[in-house]
Amino acid sequence: MAISSSSNLAKEEQKLALKLLIPAFLILIIIALYPLGQVFYTSFTNREFASSTETEFVGLDNYKALLSVTVKELPPVIDEETGEQAVDEETGEAVFERPIRVLPRDPHLYRPSFEFSFFGNKYVVGARTPDFIRAVWNTLLFTFFSVFFETVLGLIVALVVNSEFKGRGAMRAVMLVPWAVITVVSARMWEWMFEPTRAGLFNMLGDRFGLIDGSFAFLSNNALQLPAIIAVDVWKTTPFMALLILAGLQMIPGELYEAAEVDGASKLRQFFNITLPLLKPSLAVALIFRTLDALRVFDVFQVMLSQKRYSMASFNYFQLISARQMGMASAIGVIIFIIIFAFAILYMKSLGVDTE
């Protein structure tokens, strides 16, 4: 009888819990699932933003236009006089056929996204929407390097402020200043420091100390744009990672370190055998939060680079506001959602978040 009554009580508690969750489910449906469903539906149409043009259902056309990619090998240009591959007189590099002549034009025009060399051969990646393919690549590179540096530096900062030293409280407060600065404000601040003239902080310091000859156009040079954006994000977001990791460090019992010292374990061995294994759940949560946030980066790219270089989110903004292609922008939003969802599942499975 006791077992039966406890079982009935458990069922009643489950029913009560479900009833209490109904308002939360309704709010979730209203503010999340319904708008998400609208975006999915709009992505299958040619709807224009702020236009009276009649909307038509186009099926997968938007997705085909965004994701249609082809890779073609560029044939070498043959010198008519020597019968060998032509060489550029200024650079001394081998000359290959122009990508536009190699990429397909019918039934859809493919334009070059980027080129690469492999075992002496040169290839071009063509796409119907090359800006979007470059935006995906920019976002993935930004995510990988920014999250890597933020995690490493955040771990170092967290280990430092977790140790005993005079002024530790003030240090913990100061380290949060970059994270507290509004992203747009910090982007404008760094934009001034990256100015291509001597008015820019880095060019001024480099010129004064004789480190550079001339000046660097950080935000105009294709090779420097992404490193500059990554540096800005690392400066701002490292404190956030340090705070999450510090919370995990605070939960590790001090008795473990005392026992390790009694056993003669060095600080390095304590780190790899105690700190890192017990810090894994906190690191996993920090990596998930930061990676998902980096994949949808918008503000830094939009403020500092505008249309010079896109992230996925800033290209989505361009398609919606400037090009007014709401159907295409919705398809980009769906693709971003799928990529972020895939990364979240990958992280949870690989880092064992669901089992910790």
TrEMBL record:
ABC transmembrane type-1 domain span: 136-347
Topology of the protein relative to the lipid bilayer: Multi-pass membrane protein
GO cellular component terms, A-Z: plasma membrane
GO terms under biological process: transmembrane transport
Location relative to the cell: Cell membrane
InterPro entries xrefs: MetI-like (IPR000515), MetI-like_sf (IPR035906)
Keywords for the protein's UniProt record, in alphabetical order: Cell membrane, Membrane, Transmembrane, Transmembrane helix, Transport
CDD domains, per the entry: TM_PBP2 (cd06261)
Stretches that traverse the bilayer: 20-41, 140-161, 173-190, 326-348
SUPFAM superfamilies: MetI-like
Superkingdom of the organism of origin: Bacteria
PROSITE patterns assigned: ABC_TM1
UniProt record similarity statement: Belongs to the binding-protein-dependent transport system permease family.
Protein name: Trehalose/maltose transport system permease protein
Organism whose genome encodes this protein: Halanaerobium saccharolyticum
